Amino acid sequence: MPEMTIGRRGFLNIGVGALIALPAESRAASDETVPNSSGTERPKLKAPANAADCHMHIYDPARFALVPSPRVAPANAALPQYRLLQKRIGTTRVVIVTPRNYATQNEATVTAIREIGPNARGVAVLHPDVTDAELNRLDAAGIRGIRFSLGDPASAVVTADMIEPLAKRIASRNWHIQFNMSGDQVVALSDVLRRLPVQLVFDHLGSPPLPAGVSHPSHQLIRRLLDANRAWVKLSGAYLNSRIGPPYPEATAIAQDFVRATPERLVWGSDWPHPTSPGPEKPDDAMLFDLLVDWAPGDATRHKILVENPERLYGFS
Asked: Which domain, by its residues, includes 239?
């Protein structure tokens, strides 16, 4: 076993009083600054082998033109820049989600999946008129779901009435429907969600309105769907679920409630390059990864969230 140098910050509280020594390289500064990410240090928490980042976006306007949108697209957010983030936080698997700035044009996502290889999957944005041939092509390319980003009507490229027709189109595939919408929208669409014939995935902790948080009806609805093995939640977007800022205590309360209830139905995502993060500075991705220490205490629980659950949901082998 290689010798480890343990310094003042070389120990990490893993919960219930347990302490583990961390290798010095996990605390060292990254070799290169990661665009769209604050800070330079690596996480204190060491990612397990085959850890997956299950929510990020690729913006590659040099190769794939963006669609006109009121939403400003991040710069320096193509695959080469994302590889720097992987090197910094230690994840090796990734799920690429087509952002709104590409509307239903999924080629930047599909191309990045192909360039990464077997460690990549994707989530597309589609309309109900998509052909069966295109669904087959996307499936072969590694797409495993369809996203509905409904929280900002001004930049939305899909509508709620498309959800059920598309869910029926993919019911025979091992795909899911992914939702990025407010807790109030979750409640408004509760009848639709209950009858969809596919698995459901909720972005960014389900986004319950604050200060209600876990007391909001949307959180209770998502909890019931998780308990029934109908849904999954992405432990992502801490900064979207906190009015206080780092270390995002309101988001921690929401995440901990999910972890206590159904850790086998959760995955983690960075949300890099953080297209909707508030404030002039981007979040510190090392800190976001380290939130898992408090959100999901215990190596076994974190291994489920980072490795085992993504294998089940996205088909990593």
From this structure: 45-314
- Which residue in 74, 136, 127 sits closest to 99, CA to CA? 74
For residue 224, is it within any domain? yes
In whole angstroms, give the CA distance from residue 42 to residue 51.
15
Q: What span, in angstroms and rounded, lies between the C-alpha atoms of 306 and 276?
A: 23
Tell me how far apart the alpha carbons of residues 282 and 80 are, in angstroms, rounded to a whole number: 18
- Percent over 90 (pLDDT), the chain: 87
* Rounded distance between C-alpha atoms, residue 291 and residue 249, angstroms: 10
> How many of the other CB atoms lie within 10 Å of CB of 292?
20
pLDDT tens digits for 30-39?
A: 567 999 999 9
Distance CA 34, CA 212 (A): 34
Instruction: Give the global pTM.
Output: 0.90
Q: State the CATH number of the domain containing residue 242.
A: 3.20.20.140
